[in-house]
TrEMBL record:
Matching InterPro entries: T8SS_CsgF (IPR018893)
Protein name, UniProt field: Curli production assembly/transport component CsgF
Pfam families from the UniProt entry: CsgF (PF10614)
Record organism: Stutzerimonas stutzeri (Pseudomonas stutzeri)
Function, as annotated: May be involved in the biogenesis of curli organelles.
UniProt keyword annotations, A-Z: Signal
């Protein structure tokens, strides 16, 4: 009888310990991809990783480096200067200044219209087409 008591106590303690440690929770799958219910904040990160790994190039796509590579330093300087002058002209509008800028391709005229409206008139020198942008005050 003495041998059966330690074996019985050991079996009871072992089963007690096993039953106490058998707690578990549910596993819940949370998708990462926003297309499958994941957070929309992951979209840009996933797209950036996919594009970084993409080694294929579109044969019909324009190569931006070739567009800039054909310009001389003088052409680039002229383009930057025209952008700066147009920017200064449009920035002066908030102070009530008007004016006109003529480039190789366009004539841009900024003036005040009736009832406090601002008018930006863009004329294509090659075709003679005129576009007007009218900004009204509310």
């Amino acid at each position: 009888m003495k041998q059966h008591i330690p074996r019985t106590i050991g079996t009871l303690l072992g089963s007690l310990l096993l039953s106490v440690g058998a707690h578990a929770t549910e596993l819940v799958y949370t998708p990462v991809n926003p297309s499958f219910g994941g957070s929309p904040l992951n979209g840009a990160w996933l797209l950036g990783n996919a594009q970084a790994q993409n080694k294929k190039k579109d044969p019909d796509a324009l190569d931006r480096s070739s567009l800039l590579g054909n310009q001389s330093a003088l052409d680039r300087f002229t383009s930057q200067l025209e952008s700066r002058v147009l920017g200064d002209l449009l920035n002066g509008v908030k102070d009530g200044k008007t004016g006109m800028v003529t480039t190789d391709d366009f004539v841009v005229r900024v003036y005040n219209g009736d009832a406090g409206m601002l008018i930006v008139e863009i004329k294509d020198r090659l075709t003679g087409e005129i576009s007007e942008i009218i900004v009204g005050q509310n």
